[in-house]
């Protein structure tokens, strides 16, 4: 933590370390290292960085990580996304694989558009191997823009008793002024949440790869978390262990 500014700058490391210790402990009782398959279909620099970051974290913990490159990631002459479905189906059918994740965006900045138009990609991932939690069992009609972060996060927060705002450009300032927690995940380096609009003492969490808050955010925020990458990976690996355990239970002979 840093003391510069009014609010506290919270690093992701101590949070991630708590879960890292939990994962290390769980791995000692695992019959074999869990296997995670990452599917990369683009030459997008952030996606490539995320996949390598995933590999490093898995290697450090003794988790088996396999990166399967398809489409433009495997051959620049191929279209982005080409071969994704086939790679997912292959991983689904491989009994040695415990978890699957697909690196988005596949078509550059059209991340949400792609996911909404070919949503079966997320459904194809077996619910027994979906470390990202994108698979759904029941179908509902819901109007919301982001299927990757916005809607799932809103549901999680609402489930824990929070009042969640869905806002547009005409109401965001009013909502920020009364919000105790502000989580931003806009994939645009030019986008900034104005510090002047924030409520004094609020908590600000930046989920995007780019900094969504202004440099003086801690003048208003009591706590500011500028990046969550390491925590994200720990949550993926935590889910991976749970999926491995569920499969063991499901495959255990009945007494």
Features:
255 residues, Rossmann fold, 2 domains, alpha/beta, three-stranded parallel beta sheet
- State the separation between the terminal residues, measured CA to CA: 52 Å
What is the makeup of the main sheet? Answer: 4 strands, parallel
**The number of domains:** 2
Structural class of the helices, strands and pairings?
A: alpha/beta
What does this structure look like?
This protein is 38% helix and 11% strand. The protein is of the alpha/beta class. The protein has two domains: 30-132, Leucine Dehydrogenase, chain A, domain 1 (Rossmann fold, 3-Layer(aba) Sandwich); 144-231, NAD(P)-binding Rossmann-like Domain (Rossmann fold). The protein has a four-stranded parallel beta sheet with strand order 1-7-6-5, with no helix packed on it. Helix 1 (13-28) packs parallel to helix 9 (229-251) and helix 2 (45-61) crosses helix 9 (229-251). It starts with 7 loop residues before the first strand and ends with a helix. Residues 111-117 and 138-144 have low confidence and may be disordered. Residues 10-132 form the Tetrahydrofolate dehydrogenase/cyclohydrolase catalytic domain.
Structure summary:
One of its GO terms (molecular function) is methylenetetrahydrofolate dehydrogenase (NAD+) activity. By secondary structure, this protein is of the alpha/beta class.
Give the secondary structure arrangement, pairings included:
Layout: E1 8-9, H1 13-28, E2 35-40, H2 45-61, E3 64-69, H3 71-74, H4 84-93, E4 99-102, H5 111-117, H6 120-124, H7 150-159, H8 172-176, E5 181-184, E6 203-206, E7 223-225, H9 229-251
Parallel strand pairs: 1-7, 2-3, 2-4, 5-6, 6-7
Helix pairs in contact: 1-9, 2-9
GO molecular function: methylenetetrahydrofolate dehydrogenase (NAD+) activity; methylenetetrahydrofolate dehydrogenase (NADP+) activity
Protein name: Tetrahydrofolate dehydrogenase/cyclohydrolase catalytic domain-containing protein
Domain Tetrahydrofolate dehydrogenase/cyclohydrolase catalytic: 10-132
């Amino acid at each position: 933590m840093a003391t510069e500014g009014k609010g506290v700058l919270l690093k992701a490391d101590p949070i991630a370390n708590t879960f890292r210790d939990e994962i290390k402990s769980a791995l000692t009782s695992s019959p074999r290292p869990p296997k995670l398959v990452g599917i990369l279909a683009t030459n997008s620099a952030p996606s490539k960085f995320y996949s390598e970051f995933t590999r490093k974290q898995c290697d450090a913990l003794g988790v088996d990580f396999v990166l399967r490159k398809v489409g433009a990631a495997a051959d620049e002459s191929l279209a982005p996304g080409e071969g994704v479905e086939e790679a997912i189906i292959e991983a689904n059918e491989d009994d040695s694989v415990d978890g699957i994740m697909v690196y988005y965006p596949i078509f550059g900045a059209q991340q949400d558009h792609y996911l909404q138009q070919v949503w079966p990609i997320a459904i194809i991932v077996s619910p027994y191997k979906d470390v990202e939690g994108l698979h759904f069992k029941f179908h509902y009609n819901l109007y919301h823009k982001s299927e990757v972060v916005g809607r799932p996060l809103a549901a999680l927060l609402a489930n824990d008793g929070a009042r969640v705002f869905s806002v547009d450009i005409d109401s965001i300032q009013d909502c920020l002024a009364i919000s105790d927690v502000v989580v931003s995940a806009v994939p645009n380096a030019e986008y900034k949440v104005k510090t002047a609009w924030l409520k004094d003492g609020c908590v600000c969490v930046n989920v995007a790869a780019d900094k969504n808050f202004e440099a003086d955010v801690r003048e208003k925020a009591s706590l500011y978390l500028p990046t969550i990458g390491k925590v994200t990976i720990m949550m993926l690996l935590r889910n991976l262990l749970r999926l491995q355990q569920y499969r063991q239970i499901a495959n255990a002979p009945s007494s």
